[in-house]
Amino acid sequence: MVWLRRIRQSVMLHSFLHDPVAVGSAIFLLFFLIVGFGAPLVAPHNPYDSASIDVMDSEKPPVWEEGSDERFLLGTDAQGRDMLSTILYGLRVSLIIGMGAVALQAFLGITVGLIAGYGGRWVDTLFMRLADVQLSFSTYMIAIFIGAIVKASLGVGNFERIAVPFLIVVIGLAEWPQIGRTVRASVLGEKNKEYVEAARVIGLPARRIMIRHILPNTLTPVLVISTVQVANAIMSEAALSFIGLGMPITRPSLGSLIKAGFEYIFSGSWWITILPGIVLVLLILSINLLGDWLRDYLNPKLYKS
Amino acid sequence: MDTTHAHNAAASSATPLLETVNLVKHFDISGGLLDRIQWRGSNLEFARTVVRAVNNVSLSIAKGETLSVVGESGCGKSTLARTVLGLYPPQSGQVLYRGERIDNLSPQQMLPYRTKMQMVFQDPYASLNPRMKVREILEEPVRFHHKEKSRSEVKDRVAEVMKQVGVCPDWGERYPHEFSGGQRQRISIARALVVDTEFIVADEPISALDVSIQAQILNLLMDAQEQRSLTYLFISHDLSVVEHISTRVAVMYLGFLCELAPTEELFTNPRHPYTQALLSAIPQLGAPSQDHIRLSGDVPTPINLPPGCVFHGRCPHADKRCRREIPAFLASGDTTLVACHGVEEGRI
Amino acid sequence: MDTLLSVENLTVKFRLRQGDLTAVDNVSFTLGRGERLGLVGESGAGKSVTGFSLINLISKPGFIDSGSIRFEDIEITRLSDTAMRKVRGEKISMIFQDPMMTLNPVLTIGTQMIETLRAHVGCSRRQAEAIALENIRKVHIPSPEKRLKQYPHEMSGGMRQRIVIAIALMASPGLIIADEPTTALDVTIQAEIMDLLLELCATEGVGLILITHDLAVVSQVTQRIAVMYAGRIVETGDTQQIVHRPKHPYTQGLLAALPQHSNRQNRLNQIPGVMPSLIKIPPGCSFHERCDLCQDLCREQIPQLNEKSSGAHVACHLAE
Prior knowledge:
The complex is a heterotrimer.
Chain A: H1 2-9, H2 11-17, H3 20-37, H4 39-42, H5 83-119, H6 121-136, H7 139-154, H8 156-161, H9 163-190, H10 194-202, H11 206-242, H12 254-262, H13 271-298, H14 300-304
Helix pairs in contact in A: 3-5, 3-13, 5-6, 5-9, 5-11, 5-12, 5-13, 6-9, 7-9, 9-11, 10-11, 11-12, 11-13, 12-13
Chain B: E1 18-28, H1 33-36, E2 37-40, E3 43-46, E4 50-61, E5 66-70, H2 77-84, E6 92-97, E7 100-101, H3 107-114, E8 117-120, H4 134-145, H5 151-165, H6 181-193, E9 199-203, H7 211-228, E10 231-236, H8 239-245, E11 248-253, E12 256-262, H9 263-268, H10 273-281, H11 320-324, E13 330-332, E14 336-338, H12 341-345
Parallel strand pairs in B: 5-10, 5-11, 8-9, 9-10
Antiparallel strand pairs in B: 1-4, 1-6, 2-3, 6-7, 11-12, 12-14, 13-14
Chain C: E1 3-16, E2 19-32, E3 36-40, H1 47-54, E4 62-71, E5 74-75, H2 81-90, E6 92-95, H3 109-120, H4 125-138, H5 144-148, H6 157-170, E7 175-179, H7 187-204, E8 207-212, H8 215-221, E9 224-229, E10 232-238, H9 239-244, H10 249-256, H11 296-300, E11 306-307, E12 313-314
Parallel strand pairs in C: 3-8, 3-9, 6-7, 7-8
Antiparallel strand pairs in C: 1-2, 1-4, 4-5, 9-10, 10-12, 11-12
C-alpha cells in the first residue's frame, strides 16, 4: 500500500486538514454527492412515480410547522410530491448537468487550448478569436436561441426527454472558452521549456508531444477552474430552469423546483421554493470554497499576490 | 553535394561530421498586425522588429572533437545550438550532417538523424518532464526509434545507460523532483545516450550546478566521449571550463563568429580584440586582479545591429573601415580563423 | 584593526513541519573596519542565510535561534524592527544577485535614490539630488543626469547593478553585504563590477562581505575567506593561504575540482556525492561521507574550528 502511505504523508493532505473551511466544505460536498447520486435509495418517495402522488397531500408544510404530515419530513409541493425526495432527485439532476457540462467544456477547452497554444501564429489567432466571439454571447442568449430552435423542431413533449443532454451541451458549448484560454496560457508557458525541446530533439511527432508531454503539465489550473465551473454550470442550469428553459417540472432540478415554488411563496407555502434554494446555495458555496482552497494550495504565488 | 568549402579546409580534409554554411537565424518579434503599425514622418508603415540572433555562421565539427562556442549572454550561441538541431528553422544557410543537408528535411525524413544527434540542456529542473518517471523518460526515445526492440531489450538498454552515467537503475520508478540537480543532469545525459548517438549539443550543461558537482558532470561527459567516440558542440560562457574540455573554440559576439581556433592557440594567442578582452576578464584563482582590458559601453541589442563590424563600438582598435564594412571570417595562420579588419591588415 | 562586526555562535533555524532545520550552525567570525571577507560555499551551505541574518532579514519560518551579532556597539539580534530599519538604511547595505530585488520597476532611478535618501537623512530635494548624482558618478556611470530620469528596464544588467551599488553607498555605510552580485552578469561585466567594489572599499573605507560560490572571484577581491559547508564554517583564514594551501579536505576538493590550465583534457578531481540535505546532516563531521580521509572519530564528533599551525582556522580532526 505504497500509495496509501504517500497520501498520508503528503503535504496536500496536511494543508487540507489544517484548513477548517476546506474540510467543512468537503464534508458538505461529499454529503450532497452521496445523497444526490444515491437519491433512488435514500429518498423516502419516488417523485417521478405519478401513481404514488396524491393531490390531496399538496402544500403540506414541513414537520415542525402546524398542519404537517409526518410522512413528509420537509412538506410537499403544489402537486403533493414529497419535498425531501424531490430535492434529492433535483440535486441529482443538477449535479449530473453540472458535471456533464464541465466534462464537455474540459474536452473542448483542452483540445482547442492545446492546438491553439502549440500550433502558434494563425491557428492560435483563429481559435482565440473564436473564443472571444463565443464569450461575447452570454450563456443564456445561446441557450434561449438553441432552446427555441430545438423546442420548435421537436415539440415540447419530446424536449422534456432530451432536456438533460440538451442543457449539458448548451452550457458546455457556451463556457468552454474559460478552460480553453487557461489551457492555452499554460501551454504557451510549457512549450518553450527544455523538456519539450528534448522531446522534439528525440523526434516525437507534435501530437504525441502535446498529449504526452505538455498536457499533463497543464492540468493543474484546469482542475482548479473546473471545480469553479461546476458551480457555475449548476447555477446556469438553475437560472435557465428558473426562466423556463431548463428542466421541466416533471423531472425537476433544483432550479426548476425553485421556479415552481416561487408562485406559492406569497400564499404562505414558502418551503417549496426556500428549501431547494438553501440546498442550491450550500452546494455552490461548498464547491466554490473547496475550489478556493485547491487554487491556493496548488498555486499560492499566482493568485494570492 | 558540394561540401568543399574554403573555411573547413583548416579543420580536416575528410568530410566533417557536422557543418553549418552561412547559417542565419532571425526572430520576428513584431507581434500582431496592430503592434506593427508605426507613423514615420507622415507615412503609415508596417515596421518589423527582428532579432538577428545568428548571422552568417559557418563552422565545421570533425568527428570525435569537442567544438565549444563561447560568448556572453545574448550572443546567439544557444540559438545556434538549436538551429543546428533543427529546433528552429534557419532563415538561410545550410546545416550538413556527414555531408548531407538536413536543414530542409521533413520531420519524417529527419528521423534517422534524430537518433544520431542529441542535446543536453542547461537547466536540469526544466529539462525533465516533471510528470514522467525517470524510467519512462529514458525508455521513450528507445521505444520510439527502435519499435522492433522487445520490452526487455529496451529495459536492458536503459539500465545499461543509467549505470554508465552513475544513476542506480533501481531508481527508475522515481520522479525527477526526487533527485538532486547533479543527478538530474546525469539523467538528462542518459536520455541523450540511450539512442545511437554520435553527436551531442550540450547547451551550458554545467552552469546551473554547484562547483563540486560541475566536475562530476564534466568528467562524465568526457568519459562518455571517450567510450563512444562522441562529438560535442559545447555551448558555454565559462571560459575555464571551455579551455578544459575543448579541441577547438569558437568565440561569438552578437550573432557573428569572431574567432575560431584550436583551444591552446586561442588561449595563448588570442587575435580578435573581443577574444582578448574576454580572456583578460576571467578571474584567475589566487592571482590578484590583473589589469584586464576594459571595454567601453554595453553590448548593443541584436535588434539594431551596428553597421560594419558589430564589435566596433567597444573595440579600442576600431577605425573607419570597421564602422563601415563587415569583416570576413579569414584564416590567420594555419589553424585560426578571425573576423577582424585589424588582424587582416596586421594592425593588431 | 578595530572590529566592525563580530558574529559569535550564530545559529539560524527554520521551523518546518518535520521539525527544526538548522541552516546556520554555530557560526563565528569577525570583520575589521574596511576589511573584505569572502563567504564561500555551494548552494544550501548557509552562506546567504548568514548574510541575511546579519541585517536581521530572516523571514518566517526562519529565526535566529542563538548567538550574537555585534555591529560597532549594536547588538543586532536584539534590535526592534524600527531600529533595525535604521541600521539597514544607514550602517549596513545589501546588494543582491538580482538588481531588481532592490530597484522598483515602476519608478525612475532618480525618484528611488532621492526618496531613499530623504527617508533616512531628511535633507532637501535639491541636496538629495546632488548626493544621488555624486554617488552615480562614484560608480562610473556616464551622463548621470540622464540616468536619474531613466527606469530600471531601460538599463543593462551591469548598469542596474552599478545603480544598486550607488544606492548602497548613499548613506555611507560601514559595511556592504554583496550576495552573489555578479552571478547573473557576463564575465567582462563581472570583472568591472568587482573592480568597482574593490575601488570603493578602498576609497570609502567600507567593509565588504562577499557571498559567492566562485572561488576565483573571491580570491581576487577579498582578504580573508570563510568556507561554509552544510551550515558550518569549515575553514577560515587568509585568502591567498587558503587558495594556495587549503587545509580542510572539502576546500582541497573544491579547489582541485576547478578546471586549471595545467590539466587540460584530463579528468578533473571530483568530490564524490553531494552535500547532505540540511534536514538530515550526518552526525560528526558533516563532510565525512564524502571525505577520503574519514576515520571513526569523524563519524562521531563534530570537529571544532581550531587554529592550526599555519594560522588558518580549520574544522577538521585530521588537519594539522
